[in-house]
Amino acid sequence: MANLAAVVGIGQTKYQTRRGDVSIAGLLREAAVKALEDAGLGFDDIDAVIIGKAPDMFEGVVMPEIYLTDALGANGKPMLRVHTAGSVGGSTALVAASHVQSGTFKRVLTVTFEKQSESNAMWALSSPHPFSPHLNAGAGGYFAPIIREYMRRSGAPYDVGIKVATKDRLHGARNPLAHLQLPDITMAKVEESPMLWDPIRFLESCPSSDGACAMVIADASLVSESPKPPAWIRGVAMRSEPTMYAGREEVSPQAGRDCAADVYAQAGITNPRKDFDCAEVYVPFSWYEPMWLENLGFAEEGKGWKLTMEGATSLDENGDIPWNCSGGVLSSNPIGASGMIRFAEAARQVRGDAGAHQVEGARTALGHAYGGGAQFFAMWVVSADKG
Amino acid sequence: MSQPELLSQDFELGFTYTRSTGPVVGRFLTDLRDRIIVGIKGSDGKVYVPPMEYDPVTAEELSEFVEVGQSGEVVSWCWVKEPRDSHPSAVPFAWALIKLDGADVPMVHVLRASAESEVSTGMRVTARWAEETRGFITDIDGFVAAGDES
C-alpha cells in the first residue's frame, strides 16, 4: 500500500503574455520560492526536485533541467524531468507524488513552466515531415474535426463552446493570477470573435502565456510542519494510447475513461458530479468541456453539453459542479505548467485557499490534464479529508 | 543482386526563438557593452565570473556585483589547429580558461596567439575589445598576452 502524501505548499507566477524581466531559471524560481513560503519551508527541507515542461523544441533549450539545479536548490539532490506533451504538468505532479507515496523521499518540490513568449509552440507542435504535406494545422486544427464529430453525434447547439469560453473567462476574472482578465466578456463578444479553426473561434481558444507553477508534496508524517491545511492526495492515475490507430475513439478516448475509472476507484468516487465539489479540467478549446464532462463520467454520453448550458459548471450561476473556477486553460496557458495548474488549483480549493474563486466548503476536487493528440491523461483526486 | 531503391529525403527543421537574459546575465552583458567585466559574490565569498543568478552552495539569489580586472592568468588551454567556420577565429587560436584579477573562478574565452608555442599555463593575458560593443560575449574579441592588447 502506498504511503499517504499531501500537497503542503503551492506557488504560481502571475500568468501573462511575456515575462521579459526574468530568465527561464528566474521564472521557475519565482514559483518555487512561493511554494516553499506557502509550505513554511526552505530548500534545505526538500529531498528531491521533479520538473516538467513541454517538448524541448518549444523553447529550443535542449534539456533545460541541466541548467536549472542552482535555481531550484537541487545541487547535490536528485532531479528528474518528466515529458508527456501537454499533460506534462499533471504527470509531473503525479511523478512527484509517487516519489513520496513510495517512501523514496519525504518531501519533494515539483515545478513546471513554459516561457511561450520565447518559444515557438505553435509550429513546434506542427512540424513538417519528409514525404508528407505540411498541414500547418497547429493544435486547434488538430482538435477542430474531433469537436465537429462531437457536435454531430450529440446534436449539441452551436453555442455550447461560446458558453464555456464566456464562463471560464468570468471565472478567470476572479483569479488575479489568470492571464486573460475579461470581466466584461459576453457570449455575443465570443461569437463575434474571428473563426480560427471552424468551429473554434479566437475567444474559444487558450492564450499563450509565460508562467510557472510549483508544489511541495510531503509525506503524511511531515504535513503538520507546514502551517496551512494540506490537500490529501487520495488518488493518482495516468493512462496513454497511440495518437492514431484503426477504430480509435477520438471524441471520448479510452485512455481518458480508464484513467478516470482508476482514480475514482482509489478515492471512492462513485458519482463524480455528486462526490466532487469542483474540478479543474484541461480545456484548451471551449468544446472540450462538454466532451470531458462525458469522458470523465460527470454526464451521460451525448449529454455533457446540457450541464454546461444549464450553468451546472459555472460558479457565477451557482452550479452544483463548478469546473475551472481558476479560469482554466482558457484563461492561462503556459503549456508545460497548464496541467500542474489544474492539479494545484484543485488542491487550493480543498485547502480553502482559492480566494475569490473559492467554491464554498469544497472538500474533494479533481485535477485533470491531457496532452498530445488527446492521448496522454493524468488525474488526481485531492481532498480536505485524509480518507 | 540489385539493391532495392531506398527512399530518403533531405529534411531541415528550423524554428525561431527569443531569449531573455534576466537581471544577472543581463547586467553582465550590458556592462560588456561599456567595456566593463563584472562578476558576482557568492555566499562562500568567491567572485564568480560570468555571474550566476543563484548561489551554487545555498541556492540563494545573488545580487552583489563586483567589477573584476580585464587581465588575468591562463589556468588551462587547448590549441585549435584547424578552426572551422563556426569558430570565432579564422586562424589557429586557443580556447583558454582565464582567471581574471579579482575573480575566484576562471572563465572560458578565446586566446589569440600567433603560435601554440606562445601559449602557456600561468601566462598573463589581457582582454582585447571588439571595435563595436553590443552587449554580446563577443564584445571581448579575445584575450592576448599582456602587453599585446593594443
UniProtKB/TrEMBL annotation, chain A:
Domain Thiolase C-terminal as annotated: residue spans: 246-377
Listed name of the protein: Thiolase domain-containing protein
